[in-house]
Amino acid sequence: MEGYTRQLARFAVHSRPGDVPSEIRHEGTRALVNWIGLPINACRHDTTERAIAAFAEFSGPRQASLLGRSEKLDIFKAAFINCIASCIADYDDTHLATVIHPTGPVASTILALAEHRKIAGSDFLHALILGVEAQCRLARALAVAPAKCDAAWFLTGITGGIGAAIAAARLLGLNEQQMVWAIGAAAARASGTRETHGTMGKNLVPAWTAEEGLQSAFLARQDFTTSDTILEGPRGLGHLYTREANFPALIAGLGEHWELTQNAYKPFPSGIVTHGAITGALEIAQEWRPDPGAIRRVELEVHPWCLHLTGWREPRTALEATFSVYHWVAVALIERRIGIRQFSDTCVADPLVVALRDRVEARPNEAFTRDEAMVRVRLSDGRLLERHVAHALGSSERPMDDAALSAKLHDLADGVIGECAAGLLAERCWNIERTPDASVIVAAACGGGEG
Amino acid sequence: MEGYTRQLARFAVHSRPGDVPSEIRHEGTRALVNWIGLPINACRHDTTERAIAAFAEFSGPRQASLLGRSEKLDIFKAAFINCIASCIADYDDTHLATVIHPTGPVASTILALAEHRKIAGSDFLHALILGVEAQCRLARALAVAPAKCDAAWFLTGITGGIGAAIAAARLLGLNEQQMVWAIGAAAARASGTRETHGTMGKNLVPAWTAEEGLQSAFLARQDFTTSDTILEGPRGLGHLYTREANFPALIAGLGEHWELTQNAYKPFPSGIVTHGAITGALEIAQEWRPDPGAIRRVELEVHPWCLHLTGWREPRTALEATFSVYHWVAVALIERRIGIRQFSDTCVADPLVVALRDRVEARPNEAFTRDEAMVRVRLSDGRLLERHVAHALGSSERPMDDAALSAKLHDLADGVIGECAAGLLAERCWNIERTPDASVIVAAACGGGEG
């Protein structure tokens, strides 16, 4: 039987845009609309600024834009910067079964490429879909069951470069063997640790996957050889990262079943595993509007991963607060809505937020699904406000609709490029399939209208 | 107690060149002399050419030389290219206890930096020593025992970037916190798989560590934050890569005991675990000069890792032959000497070599040390030529002396830059501590004399 790596590569080389069902193409478009506001919003975040300051003097030909800004960098560094910016608020997408965030590495990579060579919108979307699909399937194969995929690995760092490489290789027109090598190169150092969480460094993990993925495609184009069996080989990713990989899941029903449909868009800028509890807190806040000062205690029951990944008690910055379910539940109860404005150091230091956060308690419930939560708000007058959340807002079961995604884009981008440009950007993303030149997305994302 | 990452960082920041004993400084110089010929020799290898072809058009300011060539690239890409070239022949150095190859990522990185800013030779050597020392100690901490460090991990990929980052951070004058962050950034995606072995992709693993390590230092200089506990934290490298890390070994006796002394220089261009068998075969060939055609069978006993890592039966290229102990034992018996000329696809395809290779058998001996070997050559006339090798040539017990390292440099570089330039290069390397500007090394390595 042919190797799994080669089967994946063959699919990626031979799939045609028209082979992808229209509802999947629409889902890919939704992934783009969900993501595109993020690098714009964070284009002047300290994380982004410091990375640009570190690298700009070493940039090659300034062909590729930094979304939301006027500068350009070489395509590798632009992919890196746009990806790093897009990850900062933890507000991107999540393949819930594996907790990877697949769009960032791929979209950053192919947007940079779209300024290097002319790419039709339909090909751009197709490459995005292939790169995201490959990542979700690979993550499935590696994360057979939660117990087998230690939560200390930052799985996006393992899969991201491979998705980026596949998308870029596709757009560079590589043949099947070159596609295998592109995957092999991108997987050579595929990894990532969650020890970086809560720091700027967390965002390095996906950002370097974008850069290395793009480089991998250019290497493969030169027939730079690497392993033909980097995924399934005896020393490949399956062996390294699992006790037993499920590679049949990598290739089963390719082109028929789309794992992309299991990719969820975040309504809140925080770790996905907080979303069940946030949903419950928001619903309680909106229904009963309790006075935060009158809340004696908040009790949460959550999936164990919620505390494992986002159990930080005393976050000091917005970067850290991403990993604090206590913080976000307090914010939800106080603000009664959550958007990008709540992702700020000011909000994290707000005495009202801190005081309520300290009154939030949580315990794991092994029987819960990952986005399930029970939220109990006990008031000083003895009343109990209670909400069981079977599925979080933004989950596959309660997805953000197209209008909500457009609203998210505006929430993220209006303050940077203006409402008009953000509207144009949304329109161009929704119409990506029909544009002859995908770089018009970039032009709009930088606040201009010219393609 | 302070974290291990911070203790390592503090040492790297506060150590002064004069604190390092002269014999250790000499050992660092030997590491440089051993290594410097490698990127020169391989500067036009297909692997190098294809990587340059992939990346040159995206280069930033062309400040840093590609050793052996006339072109320059930006410092990140030059570090990448020089490191990748230096790894191709598997002829660099090896910390035998952990089988990492520490000099490549560090030397490539700081040579590029030496063309970006003026660096005194003594500081250059000091940074090299700190970067190599950190890697060897980290590898010790992670590879507690062979059983705990699965040989599928390419440990150089885990440690290389950290060594490169420490060396570069030192030369950029970073403070202690920035040094911690530089380590944290370089470790964020630290990894590598040996599934790449036998292909050009094997060399991507160390090459990317050089580039990311250098980038990590520049990020940290901008106060780009990352974990303070990337090594010992609950989701750090110790947790990810070992069942139980030995972090005390990382910091015990820093500045007093030097793990650098356990770094061995290779006399043969092949995987280090083949060297015991090659030594035995060479000694038999040189002592008894058997006619290769009269050799009926060759029987090897070797450490299990020799077969695990270099047990390839039918290598097709020099890149693959690196991992074939059968091939190299045959070459040793036929050629009676081994140098860089034997690292060639022609040699691998030589019918005489192939025929003898197919008559070599090997079995693991659990009781052997890693560089121990028993070689038995059975001749058609019934004679048995036998040699037990307690320690391989090039091991810590039978190290290459300074003259042998100079000869290796000439063997590698004469054919590319000429004997005269190679001699000048050797002289400058041996005198590195006394030069006010380390970039004179680069000038000589590119065939010029001007610093």
Summarize the entry for a quick read.
The structure is a homodimer of 451-residue chains. With 451 residues, chain A is an alpha+beta fold. Chain A has 20 helices and 8 strands.
Explain the overall architecture:
- 2 copies of one chain form a homodimer.
- The first copy, chain A, starts with a helix and ends in a 6-residue tail after the last helix.
- Chain A has 451 residues and is of the alpha+beta class.
- Chain A has helices at residues 4-14, 22-41, 46-55, 75-87, 103-114, 121-142, 155-171, 176-187, 204-221, 237-241, 248-251, 275-288, 304-310, 318-321, 325-335, 345-349, 351-357, 402-417, 419-430, 439-445, and strands at 64-65, 72-73, 93-95, 263-265, 295-302, 360-364, 373-379, 384-389.
- The first copy, chain A, has 20 helices and 8 strands.
- In chain A, helix 2 runs antiparallel to helix 19 (419-430).
- The longest helix of chain A has 22 residues, at 121-142.
- Chains A and B meet through helix 3, helix 8, helix 9 and helix 10 of A and helix 3, helix 8, helix 9 and helix 10 of B.
